[in-house]
Amino acid sequence: MEKRMNASLQRPEIKLQSLKEDIKEFFKISGWEKKLQNAVYSELSVFPLPSHPAAPPEHLKEPLVYMRKAQGSWEKRILKSLNSMCTELSIPLARKRPVGEQKELLNKWNEMGTDEPDLSLFRPVYAPKDFLEVLINLRNPNYENGDSLSFRTHLGLIQVPLKVKDIPELKEFFVELGLTTGQLGIDDSTQVPPELFENEHVRIGQKVLAEQDSAAAQQYIRQGSPTALRAELWALILNISSQPEDILYYEQLKTNVIQHDLLVDSLIYKDVKLTASNDDYYFVFEDYLYQVLLCFSRDTSVLGHFAYNSASPPKSYIRGKLGLEEYAVFYPPNGVIPFHGFSMYVAPLCFLYHEPSKLYQIFREMYVRFFFRLHSISSHPSGIVSLCLLFETLLQTYLPQLFYHLREIGAQPLRISFKWMVRAFSGYLATDQLLLLWDRILGYNSLEILAVLAAAVFAFRAVNLMEVTSLAAAEAVLADLSTLKVMPLLQIFLFATVT
């Protein structure tokens, strides 16, 4: 962007005498003013607000010491699992592929799904249920002997005192989801004539795209995105525009995949085979998933998000140089070790983007803005700990009979809903419903809606759940979410039935 701006400013109509005014005018005419606004807006959406000037740098990552310690312990456990797999299988973390293997991989790049490597000895480094056990054991040492009423009366699995929104605060935050506001996902149904809402909403969406304003797009998408405009609207909100250098960067990542084999490649293959390949919606995108995820693992630009992520990228040391920082490298290069279900963060995006480098950019931006929070231990309102606590608090407060019943029969609701939230419901909802949900994640720049939807699902199935007598029976009642309509569930739960 900087290079293109400098080139633009060399134009003859910009004179030294009136430089400031000429530049302002030129920015307006050329469209650069909007591009700069979008770039600033994008930064503000991602990075946290400035903290106290005296605060140490780790506070930017996570202000609570016990959260930082828990995340550090969890990372050590993941690395131990990865290293033991290396030792057991006698496989190096990384190796250069022989020339013949490079050629073979290049030739089958667009049909990697046909490849059937023997992955029987590989296992996911961890699954969501392993992560949940860690979160259940989280404790704030300052509260161990405390007698805070609100803390002691929380009967859920999460036992840390974080501030989460109650229903009135959620109503205010998600005000555009109110019953009097038109919604795609409700007001575009076959029973509602399109001239009442849908036609006008599409017209406004086209206008927003013509204006190329990220902030306006984010506000607009809170009422849902028309299917035909969604790909462009999401790209605008995420400030993604495919430039030649972006395509070149993707090709360089591809070259890195061709040249070097990483242990995490096998974990990615295994995860796609176990999840997306068996999914009725996503199995057709198997090749795309390999391409995107293998390139993602090599992308060192992803390391930038660790500035505001409670996690830290794992390090590997050159053989014989353990502990010497000058011989350390981040492993994998992007600092992210995939877990069971990781590929489902990419799968829904394949419906929207069919050009690999664009699909890649969108996924990377979605990950560094949102998805990393679903598998990191932090106190952030969109972090998985807060989402779990919000879900449990909503159920305990507004559906107490259901909550206590499930708790009494050993079917704590979080044990069922955790897998939905950690995957942002990908693989559980029908794709059209999932995309409507992700519209709102982008629109509100928040993952809190995942916890609200999880609570709404329990409310919707409350009558059946009150009759179950075991965790297995409760899981059976909630086994299939593919027929659910997301927006009516959210509206009813937030604005209709709860006072």
How many beta strands in the DSSP annotation?
4
Biggest beta sheet attributes: 2 strands, antiparallel
The helix-and-strand class reads: mainly alpha
Radius of gyration: 24 Å
Helix content: 40-55%
Side by side, the strands of the main sheet go: 1-2
What is the average of the pLDDT values?
Answer: 87
Low-confidence stretches are: 146-151
Q: What is the overall shape?
A: globular
Order of helices and strands: HHHHHEHHHHHHHHEHHEEHHHHHHHHH
| Distance N to C terminus | 50 Å
User: In DSSP terms, counting alpha (H) and pi (I) runs of 4 or more, how many helices?
Assistant: 24
| Percent of residues in β-strands | under 5%
Structure explained in plain terms:
This protein has helices at residues 2-8, 19-30, 32-46, 58-61, 65-89, 99-107, 128-136, 149-152, 167-173, 198-211, 214-220, 230-237, 244-259, 263-274, 286-297, 356-369, 384-398, 400-408, 413-422, 431-444, 448-460, 462-465, 471-477, 486-496, and strands spanning 94-96, 260-262, 315-317, 328-330. The model is unreliable at 146-151 (pLDDT under 50). The strands form two sheets. The chain has a two-stranded antiparallel ribbon with strand order 1-2. It has 24 helices and four strands. Helix 13 packs across helix 15 (286-297). The protein is an all-alpha fold.
SSE blueprint:
Blueprint: H1 2-8, H2 19-30, H3 32-46, H4 58-61, H5 65-89, E1 94-96, H6 99-107, H7 128-136, H8 149-152, H9 167-173, H10 198-211, H11 214-220, H12 230-237, H13 244-259, E2 260-262, H14 263-274, H15 286-297, E3 315-317, E4 328-330, H16 356-369, H17 384-398, H18 400-408, H19 413-422, H20 431-444, H21 448-460, H22 462-465, H23 471-477, H24 486-496
Antiparallel strand pairs: 1-2, 3-4
Helix pairs in contact: 11-12, 13-15, 13-16, 14-15, 15-16, 17-18, 17-19, 17-21, 19-21, 21-24
